[in-house]
Predict the structure.
Amino acid sequence: MSNTAVKYIDRATGKLCIETIMGEKALNFAYNTLAGRTLWGMLFNSGFFSSLMGIYYDSPISKKSITSLLKIPGIHPEEAEFHWQKYHSFNDFFARRLKPGIRPAAAGDNILSSPADGRILVYPEISPDKAMPVKGAMRSLNFLCAGELTAQKYSVAVVRLAPIDYHRYHYPCDCSDCGNIKSIPGKYHSVNPIAFKKAPDVFVENSRVITELTSPVFGKFFYLDVGAFGVGSIVNTGKPGEHAKMDEKGFFKFGGSTVILVMESDKMQFDEDLIKNSASGLETLVRCGERIASAL
């Protein structure tokens, strides 16, 4: 087993799994070698290379790359709206919709659903002015949210999307969008755990979009879409107004990305298995729509 192996708990089975990482050799070169780290300014500090990748993956000639993605365990192409051969480019397949009913919302107005497919870490209580609870991180939760936080304590869910995952993200509960949206330019580091050992401030340094939402049950909360290396773009399809749980909020084009929920701690409580796994430093594989928390 590689010493950079990324472990997680599959919630459906309870088993400890090893993640198959797309581009693992390139990630190890970029973050674990001196030669790779000297290229950080060129690779991660601007959107140039990510934009080039986006142009390629939007083009019809990238369709052949879909077959490489299909070889990675856990992708489940049968869930896609169409057969993979009907997609016109790699990004067309990457940002695919799923067949109706594949990701139902967890029932109950007092239940918070996962906003996306991915590997989740939860933090039940964070002071907004303390450093993010990622090993070595120096920036605060309030910095991550561009100074919008006013409560004393927050609960945070970090859902990391791997390239094999369904890359559309959704509203986790019935809520309203008042139109307070901030787009924060930044870097384009990978969000894979391999990167955090060398660049622990990834979430607060990467390009991100912050949306303020209000729920009649969970109160005011913030929804962050975080870009990463290779992400051609973050596309928010949700508009200001009222939204039902599991309405689509947007999608990522190619690249591993992250969705973060920042909610007031006195309004909700994460499920015990997610708290336990996160406290052990283990992500939990969840599906979009699946229950992750309940209202207090």
In short: The first strand starts at residue 7 and ends at 10.
